[in-house]
Amino acid sequence: MAENDKNPSPATLMDVANQAGVSIATASRVLNGSARKVRNESYVKVMEAATKLNYRPNAYAQAVAKGTAPNIVLLVSDISDPYFAAVSQGVVKAAGEQGVSVTIGVAPDAKSELEAVRKATATRPRGIIISESERIDSPERAQLEAELKRYEAAGGRAVFILNRNLPFPAVDVANEVGARAIAKLIVDSGYRRPAILKGDDNYRSSKERLAGVMAVFDKAGITVDPKAVANGRFSRTEGYAAIMQLARLGRLTAAGGANAAYDGTGVDCVVALNDVMAIGAMSALRANGIEPGADMGVTGFGDIPYSADVHPSLTTVHLPLTEMGQAAVDRVLSPAEGDSSSDDNNRLIFVQSAPDIVLRESLPRR
């Protein structure tokens, strides 16, 4: 057997059409499930050719032939996270008002996100909304962009919730502006020794929020101790673990001696760059005999529904989560206005251009 025959290329629709002696359009109608009728003789020829060539129909092409499905696919990182739950609620409500159903998929990392998008495009939904991790350097990034471009070229709509600097519409919020506002409130409230819970370094929202709070602290003459910065991975459990680790190392209070942050004077507040980390941090503080809102200030970012119900209630930056979902649906269902993807000025849908700080019990004045 020749070397080139070991791994023959899979048969294409054109191969089947040529083998059957029919047009590509006829072969497509037979194999991709078109509602248009085909003569019985042609149908038999196409099916025989497909069997002989071991042709496998493309699910994406089948969906295109049948027409756009009346649904939207929403991809989130974690449906149990109150942030994604609130965004999902906005998407489902807005779509339902337009008579459109929503299929929700969970993709916790870039690899599973790409696979989920591939499966979604094969069903030819009316739109795909991606509310995910925003990782800006994943190796799957180029493949994701190519897959979504093919989907849009076939008439679909792709929208991101939070911008990932890809050539698709994105609902965006004022991350750095909000972070500057919450940091200014912290400084104005008398706090000078913050511990910071951030997300992964390649997570866009975390980078923007961290840059905002650090700029304000620097301007106020506050040098953040590197010992008091930890990665809570935007997770309640990881936020809890990060604070527990700081406590074990003696970096939260003056009792830690040489290991303590701020030269043994201890931390006076926890600045979490999202709400679920802040909630996890408050539980960890209590586990170490430190009462949040009394012994130590705590702030979050996002204003998830639970942030008003925890004790003490959480001071945070409000994000219009349900409105973000609504804006994404509106973009998916809006009438086509030509190709706007090449115009960077038209790609972003800002639902929050100025910060809305919610002052609650977790950050009393000192």
TrEMBL record:
Keyword Cytoplasm: no
Domain HTH lacI-type: 11-66
Cross-referenced SUPFAM superfamilies: lambda repressor-like DNA-binding domains, Periplasmic binding protein-like I
Protein name from the UniProt record: Transcriptional regulator
Pfam families with a match to the protein in the record: LacI, Peripla_BP_1
Organism from which the protein derives: Bifidobacterium biavatii DSM 23969
A Gene Ontology molecular function term of the record: transcription cis-regulatory region binding
UniProt xrefs under PANTHER family: LACI-RELATED TRANSCRIPTIONAL REPRESSOR, LACTOSE OPERON REPRESSOR
Keywords: DNA-binding, Transcription, Transcription regulation
Keyword Transcription regulation listed: yes
